[in-house]
Amino acid sequence: MKTLKLLAFVYISQFVFLPCIFADTIVNTVTSETYHGYLTGKESAGLADVNTTEKGLIKVNKSHLKITRDSTGRNNSFALFEICDSIMAGMETTAFEEALKKAASAGPQFILIEIDSPGGRVDLCKRIVAAIQQVTNCDVYAYIKGGENGGAFSAAAVVSMACDKIYMAPGTVIGAATMISTDPNGKPIDMKEALGDTVGEKMDSGWRNYLASLASAKNRPSSLAVAMAYKDIEVVEVNENGKKRIIDASEKKPESKVVKVWSKKGEILTLPAKDALECGMADKIFLSRLDLLEHHNFASAQVITDDSIAEARKMYDKIDKRIDDLIVSMDLGVKRFETTRSRVQAMKALKGLIYDAKFALSMKKRFGDDVKIDEDEVQDFLNDAQAVYESIRSYRR
Questions:
Q1: What is the longest distance spanned by two Cα atoms in the chain?
Q2: What is the pLDDT, as a whole number, of residue 190?
Q3: Which among 78, 150, 303, 311 is placed 20 to 30 Å from 192, CA to CA?
């Protein structure tokens, strides 16, 4: 946007799955009562709400419950979510957080997040991961289905790693989880460029630990998760006393035999589906969603979707277009002001600029980082335009 100069951030091993192992048998360890159903996720005064087939909704001290996964008591449905674009919209993330919690509380067999995304903002990625981690009353699966983007990259790869299982379609890829930031106009930039070397280095260190912890929590190779973001390490598979391990090459014992190099130093790791399955980053390859459902004997399960996320994406796109239109309008207004020789026309051009700038700032205040403008720059622009307008208005020949 042109400014008014003349006037004084826009598992190490593959798992074997048994069908229908998704719901809960719940035993009260104090009373020895057994129920079939699911925790709704709601708690009050230390008591958890449990939806049971025997007694309906009951309240029980959560610490007294022993929960075993089985198929009895859950609904014949699964909740479907999609991450099939860049993770850039805060309002979409908010809708995802709320819808995920709601879906888990309804007692589906599982939650399926279908992913085909180039990634996106780190802050939003962490919010999505946290939302998934908070779902303790229902299994959450990622299915990297392929499509325009070809897999789960960057932030989308990290979101996948937060899920209980990672399923992939043939030909898809997971990886390249480098941490980036964005400038006020939404352009991706390196963290050190955004925050400086010292702060950027601390952020890098934190991101390494974050990825390693996320992978380890789901029994996936932490070294491979780190190699997806940093090219300064080599990851190898070693055989130690007949046991396979995937580790950072710097941790290899002299007597350990290297079986395979998974990630070469100097490269950011991306894993095709077959390799992801072999190394334990993914759990199984399915040709399609139907293939996945049939494997678990849920081909007839009802699909539960939530419209709020799609509506939030539409709103984000609408706002994005409106801001682009505003910038064009303001640029044209500046040109009109610079070329006019009429006091009346100059004031008219300035009034249009003032209106557009105020509207842009109101959008920024309401929608935050979803509005890609530099708030300080627009505020300075508005101040200049108002000052010049008042100067011209009060001028008398």
A1: 96
A2: 60
A3: 150
Alpha carbon distance 96, 81 (integer Å): 8
CA–CA separation, 397 and 394 (whole Å): 10
For residues 361 and 77, give the distance between their C-alpha atoms in angstroms, rounded to a whole number: 44
Which tens digits make up the pLDDT trace of 239-296? 888 888 999 999 998 888 899 999 999 999 999 999 999 999 999 999 999 999 999 9
DSSP 249: G
Secondary structure (DSSP) of 197-251: HHHHHHHHHHHHHHHHHHHHHTT--HHHHHHTT-SS--EEEEEETTEEEEEEGGG
The reported pLDDT for the residue numbered 195 is 54
**CATH 3.90.226.10 is the classification of domain 9-16+76-230+268-305:** yes
Two tokens, residue 243: 């046991």
Question: Which 8-state DSSP code applies to residue 117?
Answer: B
For 167, other C-beta atoms within 10 Å of its C-beta total 27
Can you give the pLDDT at residue 201?
57
Per-residue pLDDT tens over the stretch 109-158: 899 999 999 999 899 999 999 999 999 889 999 999 989 999 999 999 99
What is the distance between the alpha carbons of residues 69 and 25, in angstroms, rounded to a whole number? 6
Residues 6+ apart with CB under 8 A from 210: 126
Closest C-alpha to 275, from 137, 166, 190, 195: 166
Q: Where do the domains of the chain lie? A: 9-16+76-230+268-305, 23-73, 231-264, 321-394
| E-assigned strand segments in the chain | 23-28, 34-44, 47-52, 56-61, 65-70, 77-83, 110-115, 140-144, 151-153, 165-168, 173-175, 180-182, 188-190, 235-240, 243-248, 257-263, 270-272, 284-285, 302-304
